[in-house]
Amino acid sequence: MTFSQKSAPPKPSFPKRYNFKEIEPKWQKFWEKTGIYRFCKSDYSRPAYSIDTPPPYPSGELHVGNALNFSYIDFIARYKRLKGYNVFFPQGWDCHGLPTEVRLERTLGKRKTEFTPEEFVKLAREYTLKWIEPMRKALKALGLSIDWSTEYVTMDPDYWRRTQYSFIVMWKKGLVYRGEHPVLWCPRCETAIAEAEVEYVEKRRLLYFFKFKLVDGGYITVASTRPELLASCVALAVNPSDERYSHLVGKKATVPIYGREVPIIADEEVDPKFGTGVVMICTYGDKTDVKWQKRHSLPVIVSIDEKGHMNENAGVLKGLPVAEAKKKIAEILKERGLLVKVEETLSSIGTCWRCHTPVEIIPKKQWFVKTRELASKVLEEAEKIKWIPEHAKKILENWVKSLDWDWVISRQRYFGTPFPVYYCSKCGYTIVVEPEHLPIDPRKDPCPVEKCPRCGSREFTGEKDVMDTWMDSSITAAVHAGWPDELDERLFPADLQPNGFDIIRTWDYYLLVRGIALFNKTQYKTALINGMMRGTDGRMMHKSYGNYVSLLEVVEKYGADAFRIWVALAAATGSDLKFSWQGLDYAKRFLTKVWNAARLAYLFTKDYKPSQKIPPGQLKEVDNWILREFSKTIKQVEESLENFDFQTA
Question: CA-CA distances (angstroms) from residue 194 to 102, 353, 407?
């Protein structure tokens, strides 16, 4: 059936006034009815253009920051169709993980621990499905040329299968492992999180100066923002070039309150200008402590538990939340005459990306990807990618070079893709299931292996942790191409990877890591990075900050085209822009002018039917001028769109 047989376009008419509330829905319904934006798999006559659309978290309404990204994508999708491409513009929903779980907990007013895993997962699925429909409605209202037949959700069993399969491939290649290491831990969410999921904020904190007694007599004063970690102090450190303390290197000091003797060591990373120039090495106050503990082979004493409370190693502080423990220890130091002074200092604090709680560092047994081993290859593949704007590549490079730890991919949560892993209950042997058993949920499904290959036991325990949500979304480009069942090479690697600056270090990075691990190459050719939509508080617009403007509110007031024009004109590609109702009003008035000009031309030309082609030599000078300017405009617009310069186009 041809397009003309399916449905004829609406009959031309030109109302006097531009009414977007009638015009936009009319054409959106026509697009959907005819399916004109569907990717044609059987069409090999046209070149394909594949877009790896970022799947949003369906945990709240879409805001104008999301719409900025989607508008950029649609500009390119429509342009490529005009240039004759068979465009693949999919849409998916990134369902799992903390974005959904934290919002669900806040909505319910309860924590995950108040439910069984099955109850919580059921609620999370219902909550996710509840939000997908209004978000889908908002995307359609924006006038996007998405192929809705490609829609997917990562919580579906078939997507589980693909994510689990990718884990098995990496396991067999030796690129994932399980081990006990210090990890970044969110006490509120009670789970490990990756370095990319930590947001650092500058805050004013109290810097406590207190005394350690030297074993050989006398005292040494230490400055720390975390005196509550005295129970975990395993050494004091000074800079080897600091003449004030060089005579103390190799000596010992006694930890106040706890009475434990610790060595005084030298390390060049100690800043002599901070505090007194003497620092506590605690296990663990920050990532530097982890480095020092390994470098100097120091013992590990953990004094904070998974809930952010002091444990039995903290003695008098046991059971107290960290903030209360800090106040309590300061009082005790003061009572004993060991607190010298307290000052304010500005320091960077790592917080959870979803709940904004300060994170701790706790040694836990987790699953990891060997990202440090892949770092050089990631940088090599990043060079092959076209970055728009070009300086976005530097953000990725700096991020890769800054990473000290492997990517922790296990989460102590409920709503996520399960690891296809079991453990022998007798000897602890790890069993990673074979692909034919996927999808599988070891939390409730029996182990498909009859007996342990090591000891012969028939009793197994399923892995209870789930995967990081980025394990799902870091294979989207391959999944679009049909992987692992097939791989349509027209669609892979994706031609376009569009996203914001805020997820370069997550989505762009993890796609590179997984592309190298699974396919030995990048999963995308061009990275189109949009700037951030800022809210009235100056921060980027984000659902979790509550500073956003609903996309549907904007579309209902001004229409989709007004928003899209404003987005294109408000800032250069890659630059941040501040939301402006005034800017939208201007865009709407501009559209009215275009409408009026077009209507004027229509009134004079609607009945014009040229009987024959006019030879170029018979054209009037004004006709030639119009054609020259038109040709020049087309060329300039094409050049701008090829360079993703929407503002100029």
Answer: 17, 10, 6
4 falls in which pLDDT band (50, 70, 90)? very low
Question: Does pLDDT of 1 surpass 50?
Answer: no
Confidence tier at 538 by pLDDT (50, 70, 90): confident
CB atoms closer than 10 angstroms to residue 273: 7
**Which of 46, 43, 50 lies closest to 77 in space, CA to CA?**
50
Would you give the distance in Å from CA 597 to the centre of its chain?
44
Q: Whole-angstrom Cα distance, residue 53 to residue 5?
A: 31
Specify the pTM: 0.92
Q: How far is CA 428 from CA 85, 447, 452, in A?
A: 54, 14, 9
Specify the 3-state DSSP secondary structure of 506.
helix
> What is the spatial distance between Cα 4 and Cα 14, in angstroms, rounded to a whole number?
22
Alpha-carbon distance of 255 to 253, in angstroms, equals 7
Residue 86 main-chain phi, psi, to 5 deg: -90, 95
**CB count in 10 Å sphere of residue 225:** 18
Q: What per-residue confidence (pLDDT) applies to 610?
A: 72
Contact call for residues 220 and 253 (beta carbons, < 8 A)? yes
Going by pLDDT thresholds of 50, 70 and 90, the confidence category of residue 3 is very low
Under DSSP, is residue 91 helix (H, G, I), strand (E, B) or coil?
coil
Whole-number pLDDT of residue 15: 85
* Length of the chain measured in residues: 649
Q: Which domains does the chain have, with CATH numbers?
A: 18-168+470-592 (3.40.50.620), 197-352 (3.90.740.10), 609-649 (no CATH)
R_g over Cα of the chain: 30
